[in-house]
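Design job #97: recover the sequence.
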């Protein structure tokens, strides 16, 4: 066991020009998108502080929240399974699969599945798991693991994907990203329609209501949890929030941090399997609650890492990850760490052992950018230092994973730094030596045996200690006091824009690529008929609302993948995000807003609410077997961060916003 593979992979990553360009493009666009998305949240710091406190409460009282969650989920009709480790989680799933004689498994993105080697275990048992997220599908075809929590194929360029699809899927070589995306849509559509079991992760479990919340952009998450007859959710036991109000808070943070969106395109809220009278939905839902080291991690100095909501923001800002990608985070045995980046350098040793993954905490500059970017305010630099010190659940010796010379050096530094006079003397001595050692540089390149010399340059020490400089500077400050700073009104930074809910909703949805048509209720049937005629559409999938306004000869009431347009009603519209809330149930097939290429939604202006939190308070949301929040047409940016509209869900979203103010 050695670190040679780790060091070798780092060198390969840094020398790979294609990889460097791909990583730079991802990081730059993700960071810009994140800053833009949070510009509309003036109380961001307050929200992340509150989110931190909520997660701290959940982790501290995990047994109580888990008990409440399991009770509610069971009452809702979802079958609950507890798994102590990866072997038990896999055994439970395989038992479910065998009981249904399943073979084909359609799988949505799940980080828990990565940590338990889900796909490998299913293939060994004779099952066929197929990743349906575009990025995950690409890396599965390549026989690789994801390189990023949010963007699995971040390390690849379009030419590499084009060659892959040419070799594996038999299409002519192309670098046209829409063509590549359409190819994946066509191939995976058949998987969705014929899968025996759908598998997903869970972003949040709501203890109060037993809600499973899953956020996706492409529509594959909705497909996997709606179309197959059986749905199995994999969930880490720490992914809980107490209430729907808390869920609204976390949903205001997760998409903005992960992809720069106010809300992901699809936020699924799942409560139960299909109920009597429902047109669609799985006949069975199962949830496998996975511990796999989390209980031990909860009792360790690294427990704060369990606050993570898997947004990937820390990866995007980390200077080490931006040079190496997730495939450089190798264990001593050569295996890839399930979780990369700053948070992965804590969670991987914490869950899977410091002996194998403890050295990953050395792959950090401790610059603090990860803490600043974290929407839950996790103190990642402190956790990285604790990991370096061996303060992990497996109770490794202090300094586990550190080279011997570096341990010796740090011990000496601690002794010197403990006395201010001794520290100042050594600093002056070090400054003089550094000028002799490297007279023309502002830094020193130390030998590799020091532990710093492999990939880090050590700043040249100052001859004059800071204490001496500060003494003179303080005298100047005392002599010339700083002028009082004027207070800038908050309105100057975050101006209050007076807009109606209709105007705000229209502006937000239009920015997402949706189209809004405002009209009187009496004009709706004629307007809808004109739209369908202009497209030459002779069959329409509808719910109860659509059936009232579409000509009877065009109606299709059952889910049909060959119908290209769906017309549905909307329970609530959310003005702040331009989102639509749809609930399933008798007469309300959620597939009508999912399977067709065009989704037409009918929304009354009186059903608009200002915020997500208000929408989630509607009793219909918590009482439905399933509900979905839709924010624009389906989309992906998994190939070179290039936006493609229309992946697995509709490529067009048209909203007829009805003026019902006169009560008609």
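Job complete. Output follows.
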């Amino acid at each position: 066991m050695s670190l040679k593979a780790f060091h070798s992979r780092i060198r390969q990553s840094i020398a790979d020009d294609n990889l460097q360009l791909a990583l730079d493009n991802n990081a730059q666009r993700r960071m810009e998108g994140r800053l833009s998305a949070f510009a509309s949240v003036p109380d961001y710091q307050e929200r992340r502080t509150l989110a931190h406190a909520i997660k701290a409460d959940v982790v501290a009282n995990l047994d109580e929240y888990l008990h409440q969650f399991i009770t509610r989920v069971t009452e809702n009709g979802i079958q609950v399974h507890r798994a102590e480790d990866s072997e038990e989680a896999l055994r439970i799933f395989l038992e479910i699969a065998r009981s249904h004689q399943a073979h084909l498994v359609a799988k949505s993105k799940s980080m828990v599945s990565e940590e338990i080697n889900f796909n490998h275990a299913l293939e060994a048992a004779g099952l066929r798991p197929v990743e349906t997220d575009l990025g995950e599908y690409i890396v599965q075809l390549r026989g690789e693991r994801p390189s990023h929590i949010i963007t699995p194929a971040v390390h690849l360029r379009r030419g590499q994907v084009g060659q892959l699809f040419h070799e594996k899927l038999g299409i002519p070589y192309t670098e046209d990203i829409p063509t590549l995306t359409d190819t994946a849509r066509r191939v995976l559509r058949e998987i969705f329609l014929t899968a025996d079991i759908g598998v997903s992760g869970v972003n949040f479990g709501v203890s109060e209501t037993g809600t499973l919340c899953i956020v996706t952009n492409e529509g594959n998450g909705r497909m996997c949890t709606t179309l197959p007859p059986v749905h199995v959710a994999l969930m880490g036991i720490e992914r809980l929030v107490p209430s729907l109000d808390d869920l609204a808070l976390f949903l205001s943070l997760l998409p903005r941090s992960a992809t720069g969106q106010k809300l992901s395109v699809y936020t699924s809220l799942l409560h139960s399997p299909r109920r009597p009278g429902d047109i669609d939905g799985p006949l069975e839902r199962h949830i496998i609650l996975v511990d796999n080291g989390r209980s031990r991690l909860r009792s360790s100095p690294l427990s704060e890492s369990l606050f993570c909501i898997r947004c990937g923001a820390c990866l995007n800002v980390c200077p080490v990850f931006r040079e190496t990608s997730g495939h450089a985070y190798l264990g001593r045995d050569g295996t890839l760490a399930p979780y990369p980046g700053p948070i992965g350098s804590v969670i991987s040793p914490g869950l899977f052992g410091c002996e194998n993954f403890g050295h990953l905490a050395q792959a950090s500059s401790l610059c603090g950018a990860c803490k600043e970017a974290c929407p839950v305010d996790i103190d990642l630099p402190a956790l990285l230092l604790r990991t370096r010190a061996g303060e992990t659940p497996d109770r490794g010796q202090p300094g586990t994973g550190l080279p011997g010379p570096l341990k010796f050096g740090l011990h000496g530094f601690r002794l010197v730094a403990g006395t201010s006079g001794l520290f100042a003397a050594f600093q002056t001595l070090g400054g003089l030596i550094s000028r002799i050692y490297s007279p023309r540089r502002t830094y020193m390149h130390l030998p590799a045996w020091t532990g710093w010399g492999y990939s880090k340059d050590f700043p040249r020490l100052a001859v004059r200690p800071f204490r001496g400089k500060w003494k003179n500077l303080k005298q100047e400050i005392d002599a010339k006091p700083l002028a009082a700073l004027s207070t800038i009104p908050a309105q100057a930074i975050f101006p209050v824009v007076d807009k109606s809910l209709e105007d705000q909703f229209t502006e937000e949805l239009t920015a997402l690529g949706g189209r809004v048509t405002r009209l009187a209720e009496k004009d709706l049937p004629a307007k809808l008929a004109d739209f369908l005629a202009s497209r030459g559409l002779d069959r329409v999938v509808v719910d109860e609302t659509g059936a009232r306004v579409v000509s009877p000869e065009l109606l299709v009431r059952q889910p049909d993948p060959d119908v290209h347009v769906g017309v549905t009603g909307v329970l609530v519209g959310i003005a702040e995000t331009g989102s639509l809330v749809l609930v399933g149930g008798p007469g309300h097939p959620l597939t009508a807003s999912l399977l067709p290429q065009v989704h037409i939604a009918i929304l009354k202006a009186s059903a608009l609410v200002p915020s997500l939190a208000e929408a989630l308070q509607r009793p219909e949301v918590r009482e439905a077997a399933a509900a979905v929040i839709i924010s624009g047409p389906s989309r992906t940016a998994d190939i070179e961060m290039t936006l493609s509209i229309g992946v697995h869900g509709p490529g067009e979203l048209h909203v007829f916003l009805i003026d019902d103010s006169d009560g008609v």
